[in-house]
Amino acid sequence: MTGRVIALDGSPLAGAEISAGAERTRSDANGFFSVPVAPGGAWISASRAGFLGRTRAGFQGDPLLIRMTPDDGETVALQFGGDVMMGRRFFDPNEDGVTSDGLIKDPSNVEEHVSLLSSVAPLLAQADLTAVNVESPISDEPFVNALGPRTDRAHPTKEFVFASGPAMPEALATAGVDVVGLANNHQYDLLEPGVRSTVDGFARAGFTPGLRQFGLGNSVDAAYVPAVIGAKGARFAFLGCTTITGTENPISYVAGPGKGGAAPCDPGRVRDSVAAASASGAVVIFSVHGGFEYGRQPSGQVESYTAIARQAGATLVVNAHPHVVGGMDWDGGSLAAWSLGNLVFDQTVWPTFQSYVLNVHVRRGQIIRAFLEPVAIEGYVARGIRSDLAERVTRTAGGLSRGPFVMEDGALELDVARASSTARRLATVEPPDDGRISEVTPGWMPREATPGVVDLGRDLLWSGEFENDVLGVGPGALWTQGPDTRVVPDDAAGRGLVYELQRDNGDPAPAIGTTTHRLLLTDPNSERLRRLNKDDEEPGTRATPLPVARPASRARVSLAGSVRLSQGAQLELQLSWFADTRGPSTGQTVRVLHGETDRGGWQPLRIDADAPPDAVAVGVFARLTSPADMRGDGTPDEVSARLDAFRLIEWSVPGAMAPSQATHVRSAPGGSVRLEGSSLGTGEQLPPPLLPLGP
């Protein structure tokens, strides 16, 4: 693979050492390099005297840009990962109560836990200080069987309880984590013994209270003790609290009089603790744990506590709990990140598979640079991703962010200094006026569109290509693969790897291909999402109210892609609608396709559908009928179907989604879209803003 190393101001960096596993090379006089990588990609690290190092995911045929920050000896690289736990499905993947098939066989085996983190360890190790939110207690007996009666050691009324094994703290330290935040709604899942075992377990691994762990204790005072740690002559104070207190239960989740637990959010406590840490000369990083699960926008409570922390002197506020990618907010001096998603977590809800690692560079108490490095959760752990997938994560975060943010080669950069080298270009374009779909190209964001004429939408699927896009996984990540469904190369020019279903007449059952989980519909103007927004913060709390009162809307989606069928093949493409994240479907939309000629050419596919009113999720299924189930002369002995470039676009209700979040556009006559493209001075020309997808 090839790449280029440049400085923060865009100038080329010669002589940077580049490593890709065991391979080594250096950048040339213009900053360019070439290094061998395996087909599945590798972590690419760049280092050079006088600069902070950087690590990015690199893949064959995908040019990589590595922008490096000057280091004067007092520039500190801070890094923040999303939510972490290693319990529940790590022990029991199919939740049948049997742990023999677990990813973790021995909760005390450090090597087993370290191996789980190997996919992201090179990224975590690059910073001076790396912090994560650990969202589970530590226990010698961490498995809680959801199928059996709840034992006395677990919280009696909490809906979800889980724990991680005693090897997790040491594994996190080995992978490069320096500070753990414990102020969250799961640290009391195993009651008082769980609080003690968690504090002590992390302390044994070097995460000493008041130095490398914060947010949990045997009293409110203990839970509010900051973790203060030094780096390059500077001091950093980490504090946090949770808005999800569980006070509606007989036993709350937080510390209180005569009771241990997580630090409960309180306006006075937050203000005083941040102000005291700031007055001591430390750079303060605060964490608010709260909001709505799977909600990308911050709740009112989270916004309020974030504002209190910033006003009291916090330089960074890095929040958690929604488990999905949120945006960032820059006020010219302090930065807030609303939600980073997950780093190591066992959730199976599709939006939780997008995530990012936040990097912030601080020099003498001031933020001089911030950027996010996208990752994907596959097999419950974060992994590096190719730039096309990374761009989808970046667009999600960037479209929700406030400030001078710039998308660049799959990353999202904060233009802290509003540098003169930043190039911004506005373009007004007219999409095809016959309803064809166009894709917004990387580097561009829609800013406005003709109301009532242009539809804006976002791709819920975001992994509809089948190349080697995820480090350590191989092609076709997040899609099911088996004897009859696999990823293969296609002989059509420029096609690359595709998803194939095969079936012969020896098996009457159809071959079925699908994604690894159903996809949540996300239109916030619908009661569908409100039902998923649990009352996380306090009884009666609801999602952000609608900007304009209107009846609940039906989601509108388009499935677009390309299909190639062998002669005689019959393929059903099905959208299954679900009323919850679990359970059977409540309806289907089906399109039947037939192969007319032997190994016919690639044909465009498009299915437009309205979701049932009760739908909260949708599944994409391809079902290839067996020749044994067909009738008629000339039925082949074997049939196949190939899929590629799939998109599942949810079209937004007008006013429900900021235009900048859109990945796709369709228009009636007279429509136009105004887009903004930006770069930080690398000299490359921006591509055309819209790319037609076909019929």
Low-confidence stretches: 524-528, 534-551
Gross morphology is globular
Count of helix runs: 9
Q: Estimate what percentage of residues fall within beta strands.
A: 25-35%
**Average pLDDT, all residues:** 91
Largest sheet: 10 strands, mixed
In which range does the helix fraction lie?
10-25%
Number of strands: 42
Estimated radius of gyration: 25 Å
Judged by helices, strands and strand pairing, the structural class is: mainly beta
C-alpha end-to-end distance: 34 Å
Walk me through what this model shows.
The chain has 695 residues and is mainly beta. Helix content is 12%, strand content 35%. Strand 35 (570-578) and strand 36 form a beta hairpin. Helix 1 packs across helix 3 and helix 6 (267-279) runs parallel beside helix 7 (300-312). The relative contact order is 0.11. Residues 425-444, 659-695 are annotated as: Disordered. Residues 77-347 form the Capsule synthesis protein CapA domain. This is Capsule synthesis protein CapA domain-containing protein. It comes from Actinomycetospora straminea.
